[in-house]
Amino acid sequence: MSINNPRKGYVLVATAFGMTVVIGAAGLAVDIGRAYVARSEVQAYTDAAAIAAAAQLNGTSVGISAAQSSAQSVPNKWNFGTQNISNPTVQFAQPLATNAGQPDPATWTTAPPNGTNYLFVQVTAGVDVPITLLQAVTTQSTMHVTGTAQAGQVMVTTYMDGLLPFSPIAPNGTDTTNYGFQTGQLYTLRYPSPVQGMGSVCPGDQTGTYWQNLPSQDHGFWGSTSSAVIRGEIVDDTQAVPITIGENVPMVGGNRSAEGNSLATRVMEDTDPNSTTYAAYEAGGLGNGRRVIGVPVNGGPPDFTAVAVRAFFLEPASVYSAVTGSTPICAEYIGTYKQTGTGTAAAGTGTGGYLVRLTQ
């Protein structure tokens, strides 16, 4: 006679339950781990896309379109670099009235009416990560993960590097947007020594009087008279001394052949060294930004106080190769300076220049 063992059924139930727990734990380890990796990949994409987009903002609708295209063109992929991240949401915002370094939440929009004062970009993207082992305990087949990043153009009023060693005098100090400069016009970055009439200055300055009877130390450049230092500042974006808006620009006298030769070198480092105007340079879309420079604008003698940082476009290399101590150095006025390699003006209009960086 045999007696049924009641433990047999218990073992089967316990085994089945245990296997469910084991598979669930394995699913958590595998699928959740995979989701974390995917989220990291998506976040890396949104960070890069937000920075790329913010760098294109220039205060116009063209800049908005360029920002959208740049965000969508960032090559970052997910699933260990095998799949594209598609259809990101790109939004734009203006700065807070009380803090220009942060976006105003009330102004976020995917379709700004124009580009005026839109300094911030937010990029959001998501992917569906396939679920494998967790399907044993859930009906879901995918897990959606997202990444969000904000970047913007943040104003900088103290520069330790990046500004070239020239400082044009503001034609009109009461104009706190362009300081009397006209977009597209050539202005004097460095005055010859001595300044002798209108032929000694560039076209945009010829109707002014602010450059007449300048003291000997003001020839439009600052920081050092060393040819090696000047070349480093022009070609390598170093600075001999810091520049802060509201403080004096340390003007120095003398003329150095290194100025013209170094400017010619910088122009030839641009992937578009031939365009004769900034409009043609932008329309061609071939430049890498090396011909766009930032300089401190000063209020003239006797203190040469830095009133703003503004952007100028360098002429073709042949123009600078011919520079001597008796000729002016000219460049085309663009507008607000943005310290990136994109070659476009900034979107803001403050006294300082702008730096593109992540804000969230």
Describe how the helices and strands are arranged.
Blueprint: H1 7-54, H2 61-73, E1 77-78, E2 83-84, E3 89-93, E4 120-130, E5 142-156, E6 158-159, E7 186-190, H3 227-236, E8 243-244, H4 257-268, H5 278-284, E9 292-298, E10 306-314, H6 317-321, E11 329-336, E12 353-358
Antiparallel strand pairs: 1-2, 3-4, 4-5, 5-12, 6-8, 7-11, 9-10, 10-11
Helix pairs in contact: 1-2, 3-4
Concise account of the structure shown:
The protein is an alpha+beta fold and 360 residues long. It has six helices and twelve strands. The chain starts with 6 loop residues before the first helix and ends with a strand.
Plain-language structure description:
This protein folds into two domains: 146 residues, no CATH class; 201 residues, no CATH class. The protein is of the alpha+beta class and 360 residues long. Helices cover 26% and strands 21% of the residues. The mean pLDDT is 86. The protein is elongated. The strands form four sheets. It has a four-stranded antiparallel β-sheet with strand order 3-4-5-12. The protein has a four-stranded antiparallel β-sheet with strand order 7-11-10-9, with helices on one face. It has a two-stranded antiparallel ribbon with strand order 1-2. The relative contact order is 0.15.
